[in-house]
Specification:
Shape: globular
CATH architecture: Orthogonal Bundle
Radius of gyration: 17 Å
Structural class: mainly alpha
Largest sheet: 3 strands, antiparallel
Order of helices and strands: EEHHHEEEHHHHHH
Strand order of the largest sheet: 3-4-5
CATH class: Mainly Alpha
Number of strands: 5
Mean pLDDT: 88
Strand content: 5-15%
Helix content: 40-55%
């Protein structure tokens, strides 16, 4: 887990957090039910903002020439975008629609606001902090999942302009300044191995 102090006074003394893939999986596993697991997955696996989690409907999962994507019809500023989605998450969302017999109803039904989503996150992160004796978990917020997603894509070698497009950021400077985090431990290890004297 990488952390840094917020450089924005609106966040007070909070921390920005970037999880590694193992920690993302731990968080998904800490969800209390399928609905929460889908919600956390929308942040960690699709890069959605927490407000966007509440708007996802099964019909937004679609197959395109680039693969299966999640359509975000009205993201920040009511802007449309498409972002890749994992097979597991796409299947879970489509299954909700199949069970309900309705693909136009939001899959996150128990949360009426982002405040509820933050409570879900708080319960999951508190369990993880206690279980792993790692108090840093208590700093994790829903927005950190979006931050993690972007950094993990960059660490995997994805073009930053493509990540910018998938995430719906206005400009590269905003993305680089606020979302791309410190390099993942895996990326640092890979780069270190390039210097045989280290």
């Amino acid at each position: 887990m990488n952390r840094a102090a917020h450089d924005d006074e609106n966040y007070g003394t909070g921390m920005k957090v970037w999880l590694d893939q193992q920690e993302v999986q731990q968080l998904l596993d800490a969800a209390e039910d399928t609905e929460q697991r889908i919600a956390f997955g929308l942040g960690a696996r699709c890069g959605l903002r927490s407000q966007e989690w509440l708007d996802v409907e099964p019909r937004h999962v679609t197959d395109t020439s680039m693969g299966t994507v999640l359509q975000v019809p009205a993201g920040k500023g009511d802007k449309y975008r498409e972002t890749p989605i994992t097979t597991e998450l796409a299947t879970a969302i489509r299954t909700v629609g199949d069970i309900e017999g309705d693909d136009t109803t939001p899959v996150i039904r128990s949360a009426s606001s982002t405040r509820v989503l933050r409570k879900w996150m708080a319960r999951a992160r508190d369990r993880l902090a206690d279980e792993h004796e790692k108090p840093e978990w208590r700093d994790v917020s829903p927005h950190d999942l979006r931050r993690t997603w972007a950094t993990q894509l960059r660490a995997a070698g994805c073009d930053p302009l493509v990540v910018l497009n998938w995430g719906g950021w206005e400009d590269l400077e905003t993305f680089l300044d606020h979302y791309q985090g410190t390099h993942t431990p895996e990326m640092q290890k890979r780069e270190r191995q390039k210097a045989d004297w280290l």
